[in-house]
């Protein structure tokens, strides 16, 4: 019955099913009504573990059946959306089904879905694209995990790396990315997979929810991680120091720093070696613990990825966009040169995260607020 179970039940340790999980199963049933057969019937029934891995980590979903009214199709796709916040509640499902049942045959024909290639609406994972690429890319891609505080430029970095605009860049002070998003791309024969994640200190999510979502991002790359790009957009802030303080023992024990590159974004002087050196010196000087972390990681890379989603009112705006595009191209070259050097053949083993995660959760369960305050106090005393 794995086909009907909310993927979060498999992905998230100690996940408690909720109404949203039932809506997921209902979405699968709604699809089944149009197909007349159980989902994923090509898969062996006795290989349910393999099937759950495919559903959870390779975004395996069923294709719409030709002739399905678009509104009906959109309804079940919304029900099984990876982002459980997007799933409708049962009242909404009832409402849409009632409306559809009242349509005449002619009206429902007008709603027919013509070519079955419409983009997965409201879906953070660029499923259609990744699904296509999975066919040619396979497990030998260099997997990049992007993490950092909210608004530090993670999604922008993903767009720059993959030369797309599929990652939503925030235009406000409210956190934009609320789910991980994955994209495959290729550079001179090297295959990459970049996974954008939810920012620490997300404006609407708790620390535990953020960690759960980052875990989902990690598990979306079952082969492991080639490099973690930890994005910072200024000096290390107290919040960043707190995150590292919180994870310090766990991170150091795991050997994960071998796989971490700090990416300093919004660094206008990124082309100047002197400025880069000065900046690194400032980082190292700032805090002993941060210096230890930075020295143990792969490197610090400096970039500037200024916005190109600027509204155009006059020629100045057009010039800005063109200039910013060029700056992004330069940043991309720096990033790719670095990645070529540091992406090891071996991946960071997922089982390590499996071992780490319960420890992190335990740490959080043990009264996170009190611990954070204590850590902050310690930092304040040192400053
Ligand atoms: N000048 C400049 N602006 C940047 C850079 N990177 C990101 N920005 C801007 O910073 C803001 C936040 O960027 P995002 O990429 O959405 O940041 P994020 O970390 O994905 O944010 P959340 O998803 O909300 O956690 C946007 O307005 C970007 O245009 C950079 O290197 N230089
Ligand atoms: Mg984002």
Automatic annotation (TrEMBL):
Cofactors required = Mg(2+)
Q: Which organism is it from?
A: Glomus cerebriforme
Domain Protein kinase, residue spans: 1-100
What compartments host this protein? Membrane; Plastid, Chloroplast outer membrane
Topologically, how does it sit relative to the membrane? Single-pass membrane protein
Q: Can you list the GO cellular component terms from the UniProt entry?
A: membrane
- Which InterPro entries does the annotation name? G_AIG1 (IPR006703), GIMA/IAN/Toc (IPR045058), Kinase-like_dom_sf (IPR011009), P-loop_NTPase (IPR027417), Prot_kinase_dom (IPR000719), Ser-Thr/Tyr_kinase_cat_dom (IPR001245)
The protein's name is Protein kinase domain-containing protein
Q: Name one GO biological process term.
A: protein transport
Pfam families xrefs: AIG1, PK_Tyr_Ser-Thr
């Amino acid at each position: 019955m794995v086909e009907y179970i909310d993927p979060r039940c498999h992905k998230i340790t100690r996940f408690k099913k909720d109404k949203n999980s039932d809506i997921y199963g209902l979405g699968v049933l709604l699809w089944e009504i149009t197909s007349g057969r159980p989902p994923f019937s090509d898969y062996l029934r006795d290989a349910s573990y393999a099937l759950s891995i495919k559903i959870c980590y390779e975004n395996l979903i069923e294709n719409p059946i030709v002739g399905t009214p678009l509104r009906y199709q959109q309804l079940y796709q919304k029900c099984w959306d990876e982002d459980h916040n997007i799933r409708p509640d049962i009242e909404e499902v009832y409402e849409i089904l009632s409306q559809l049942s009242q349509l005449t045959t002619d009206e429902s024909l007008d709603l027919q879905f013509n070519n079955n290639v419409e983009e997965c609406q409201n879906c953070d994972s660029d499923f259609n694209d990744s699904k296509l690429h999975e066919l040619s890319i396979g497990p030998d891609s260099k997997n990049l995990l992007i993490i950092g505080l909210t608004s530090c430029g993670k999604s922008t970095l993903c767009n720059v790396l993959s030369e797309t605009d599929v990652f939503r860049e925030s235009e406000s002070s409210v956190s934009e990315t609320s789910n991980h998003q994955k994209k495959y791309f290729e550079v001179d024969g090297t295959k990459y997979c970049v996974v954008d994640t939810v920012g620490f200190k997300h404006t609407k999510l708790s620390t535990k929810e953020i960690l759960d979502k980052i875990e989902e991002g990690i598990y979306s790359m079952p082969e492991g991680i080639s490099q973690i790009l930890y994005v910072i957009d200024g000096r290390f802030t107290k919040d960043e120091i707190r995150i590292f303080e919180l994870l310090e023992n766990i991170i150091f024990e795991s050997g994960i720093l071998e796989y971490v590159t700090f990416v300093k974004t919004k660094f206008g002087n990124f082309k100047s070696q002197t400025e880069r050196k000065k900046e690194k010196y400032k980082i190292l000087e700032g805090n002993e613990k941060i210096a230890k972390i930075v020295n143990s990681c792969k490197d610090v890379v400096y970039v500037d990825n200024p916005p190109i989603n600027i509204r155009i009112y006059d020629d100045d705006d057009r010039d800005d966009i063109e200039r910013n595009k060029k700056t992004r191209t330069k940043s991309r070259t720096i990033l790719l040169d670095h990645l070529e050097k540091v992406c090891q053949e071996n991946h960071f083993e997922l089982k390590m995260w499996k071992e780490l995660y319960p420890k992190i959760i335990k740490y959080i369960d043990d009264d996170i607020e009190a611990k954070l305050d204590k850590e902050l106090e310690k930092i304040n005393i040192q400053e």
